[in-house]
Amino acid sequence: MVDGGCAPPSLLCGSTCTNTQADNNHCGGCGRACTGDRICAAGMCAAPCPAGSDRCGGACTNITTDRNNCGRCGNVCPGTLACIAGACGCAAGTTNCMNTCVSTQTSRTNCGACGTTCPGTVPCTAGACACAAGTTNCMDACVSTQSDTANCGACGTRCATGQYCVRGVCGAMPALYHGWASPLAGCLTTGFNAMAATNLGGQYPYNTGDSNACRAWKLAATVCTTEPTMYSDTNNWQCPMSGGFTDPVFGTYCARPNQYACSTCPGACNASCIYTPLSLRNCSGAEASQP
């Protein structure tokens, strides 16, 4: 309905069409003035909103951060964009890709730039489709050529049935860790892709990502001749008193009847139980904590 030729919500106040929903001098009706610092909002006199806010739907709304009223009432930010300082956009470190904020440093479907998709299972690392250190891109899959029997030493080099890939070479592999199964959950003992040196010249195999407890068990299981036992918690393992360092593949150790009989040992003796995760006693009786 038109009032005096004025379209709602305006009314004819005197000779002028006035929006009585927002006019401080005609708030809610002609001649109804708001006093003091009060303002007309939705046809009612109300206290002004704080700086950075506006009255949207009768309520003070922070238009600098509200996604549904960004910069002004009713301005809705599209997709997952945020309202930042009164404008729809993405937080620092992310990029607007089709109205979705993503990290082009890690997003496999927007790697380095919107719409750039990494092939296969290759991850997005620092804004580039690339395999992590220690792995190789073989047919768009990141593999360890040190342990992958389908890509041993190089992509496409497949080991024969029954062979293992050990440090990039196909061949027969003795039972790792003397064939013992680790009591630690998730501590796989069927293969390895990395080696670590002990403090006294030997090496032990493990998998990248193994927990400290898993690596400690693998160190003990490599050098002990009898199954290692826990002496404190799952981070601490020792060779039993009768064990010795006799592993012909990974260890450079000698067998001794117990962990203190070092008089004839030319290098390292047995494991001790003083340090974490495992320590070795040299022939002078000094303890050395292992990695």
Protein architecture, described:
This protein has 291 residues and is mainly β. It folds into three domains: 48 residues, no CATH class; 39 residues, no CATH class; 118 residues, no CATH class. The strands form eleven sheets. The chain has a three-stranded antiparallel sheet, with no helix packed on it. It has a two-stranded antiparallel sheet with strand order 1-2. About 15% of the residues have low confidence.
What is the first-to-last residue Cα distance? Answer: 85 Å
**Portion of residues within helices:** under 10%
Total beta strands: 23
Let me know the average pLDDT.
Answer: 77
Keywords for this entry:
291 residues; mainly beta; single chain; two-stranded antiparallel ribbon; 23 strands; 1 helix
Strand-helix topology:
Blueprint: E1 10-13, E2 16-19, E3 39-41, E4 44-46, E5 53-56, E6 59-62, E7 82-84, E8 87-89, E9 95-97, E10 100-102, E11 124-125, E12 128-129, E13 136-138, E14 141-143, E15 164-166, E16 169-171, E17 194-197, E18 203-206, H1 212-223, E19 229-230, E20 237-238, E21 268-272, E22 279-282, E23 287-289
